Amino acid sequence: MTTLIKTKDFIQSIEDALQFISYYHPQDFLKAMKHAYDVEQNPAAKNAIAQILANSRMCAIGHRPLCQDTGAVTCFVKIGMDVRFEGDMTVQEMVDEGTRRAYCSATNPLRKSILRDPIGTRTNTKDNTPTVVHIEMVHGNAVEVAIAAKGGGSENKTHMKMLNPSDSVVDYVLSQIPLMGAGWCPPGIIGIGIGGTPEKSAILAKESLNDPIDIQDLIKRGPKTAEEKLRVELYDKINRLGIGAQGLGGLTTVLDVKVKTYPCHAVSKATTIIPNCAATRHIDFKLDGTGPAKFTPPSLDSYPDIKIGGAGADVRRVNLDTVTKEEMATWKMGETLLLSGTILTGRDAAHKRICDLVNAGKPLPKGVDFHKKFIYYVGPVPAVGDEVVGPAGPTTSTRMDKFVETMLSKTGLYGMIGKSERGPEAIASIKKHKAVYLMATGGAAYLVSKAIKAAKILAFEDLGMEAVREFKIVDMPVTVAVDSEGNSIHQIGPRIWSQKIKEINFKYI
Predict the structure, then answer these.
(1) pLDDT in tens, the chain (509 residues)
(2) How far apart are CA 415 and CA 17, in angstroms?
(3) φ and ψ of 287, to 5 deg
(4) Domain 315-494 has CATH 3.20.130.10
(5) Helix axes 7-23, 91-103, angle to 10 degrees
(6) By the 8 A CB rule, do 295 and 17 touch?
(7) SS3 for 94?
(8) What is d(CA 478, CA 338) in angstroms, rounded to the nearest whole number?
């Protein structure tokens, strides 16, 4: 019997799904994160996980995005052979229309990050389309959809290689995970696609990230297939690297490892690794012709009630409006600070414009003065209601490494706030200028935004979320990631904790 799927039902389902996953974490993710919180022994990593869990509950209550990077949309659509679509819109067009409506919502606008002309003008499409849609024809009379909104920080950490048939997948994965750094916001899920052709392995890896987190159940019953054995082995060995939450060092780097395989050529073994970040956003639904999909909100009772550490003896309050280089020299790697005062913002595009002006000997735009200031790497979500700014978590700092020397030597900048590690060039510059790099928790964007009490655009308004802004903040929590002596927690923390894991003989399996 043929099923008719109405265009409006398909579009409505896409729109509702994207709004739903923008503020509701999957329940399996929350359960896994709570387990990671309970077992974690590194205070810095435990606090980072606590912030992510607290942020999740806040977003569920406030219906605001879990992360300021509300992602690029990928949609897997399986169409039954006995399905007919009403109207003349293609599946791609319907997914794009649902995405457009979701991201342009008046009550919960989502950040638009998709650019057209990627090697030319790189112009924002202003509605987060087009999406990436994978279509498969299957038996049956229903449409099954798996949709995800994945941030660029984790997407950029994808690794792919054509392995030889005799090469070890385990060895390859373990060689690549440390190279991902912390920009993918661990702890999260690692998806691995093996076989087929290069592009097929990437699709397998991406699709695997939509599967439920079930590694603990798998461990309990015991792995049976080659894929399950690989999952369990990698889950254990990746966590033993000691990278930990946000790369700070700790017991949990991955919550699960997913593996999908496909038959391949005799001389090839295409392998792709794609991580999923702490802002895990995906959902599945089915359309059978009876109307749009229904999404049931989880009970708030299902959220862990985690208390974030306050201003205790081990937390230092800092007034950024009066801070000196001498005071900054007393901040030590791994220390927690609560920042108050004035900060400026800027990301990739803004940094390029600023550095181009500086190197050309031209003045910065009126009102933009980095002297004795800190810059926050952020592209916030648009504000709604009485918000001064929408969710405003940090972006990956390594993309700004090439601008650090110019910013510190030519603008009077004191320090930077972002997420993930800094490279050798940036660390050397930080040490040279006795500056510091502070890390805010990736995946806690709504929580961070509550520390921002005032916001205004100072320059480059045409860049949208990448414009330079001025924030007035109160008690914004950060960790000293690189101190004025060039000590980096992202280098030292995992090294310490990989050794500690050996010493305490922590059992992952």
Answers:
(1) 899 999 999 999 999 999 999 999 999 999 999 999 999 999 999 999 999 999 999 999 999 999 999 999 999 999 999 999 999 999 999 999 999 999 999 999 999 999 999 999 999 999 999 999 999 999 999 999 999 999 999 999 999 999 999 999 999 999 999 999 999 999 999 999 999 999 999 999 999 999 999 999 999 999 999 999 999 999 999 999 999 999 999 999 999 999 999 999 999 999 999 999 999 999 999 999 999 999 999 999 999 888 776 444 468 999 999 999 999 999 999 999 999 999 999 999 999 999 999 999 999 999 999 999 999 999 999 999 999 999 999 999 999 999 999 999 999 999 999 999 999 999 999 999 999 999 999 989 999 999 999 999 999 999 988 999 999 999 999 999 999 999 999 999 999 999 999 998 887 76
(2) 39
(3) -115, 130
(4) yes
(5) 40
(6) yes
(7) helix
(8) 6
Nearest to 213 by CA among 181, 230, 191: 191
What are the structural domain ranges in the chain?
152-278, 315-494
User: Cβ atoms within 10 A of the Cβ of 123, count?
Assistant: 11
Sign of the CA dihedral running 354, 356, 361, 362: negative
Return phi, psi of residue 317, to 5°. -90, 140
State the Cα–Cα distance between residues 445 and 69, nearest whole angstrom. Answer: 9
Left (φ > 0), alpha (ψ -120 to 50) or beta: where does 289 sit? left
Which two structure tokens, joined as six digits, stand for 82? 């006995």
Structure tokens at 395: 């972006």
Rounded CA separation 168/271 (Å) = 11
Q: What CA–CA distance (Å, rounded) separates 70 from 149?
A: 7
Cα 380 to Cα 257, 308, 416, 418, 446: the distances in Å are: 30, 23, 17, 13, 10
Question: What backbone phi and psi angles, to 5 degrees, belong to 281?
Answer: -135, 105
In DSSP notation, 273-307 reads: EEEE-SS--EEEEEE-SSSS---PPPPGGGS--PP
CA distance 202 to 441: 28
What residues are paired with 162 via a beta bridge?
Answer: 270
Contact 250, 497 (CB under 8 A): yes
Count other C-beta atoms under 10 Å from residue 234's C-beta: 24
Straight-line distance from the first to the last Cα atom of the chain, in angstroms, rounded to the nearest whole number: 48
* Cis upstream peptide for 394 (omega within 30°): no
Query: Of 444, 430, 441, which Cα lies nearest the Cα of 488?
Result: 430
Size of the chain, expressed as the number of residues it contains: 509
Radius of gyration of the CA atoms of the chain, in A = 23
Tell me the three state secondary structure of residue 267. coil
Q: Are strands 254-262 and 269-276 parallel, antiparallel or unpaired?
A: unpaired
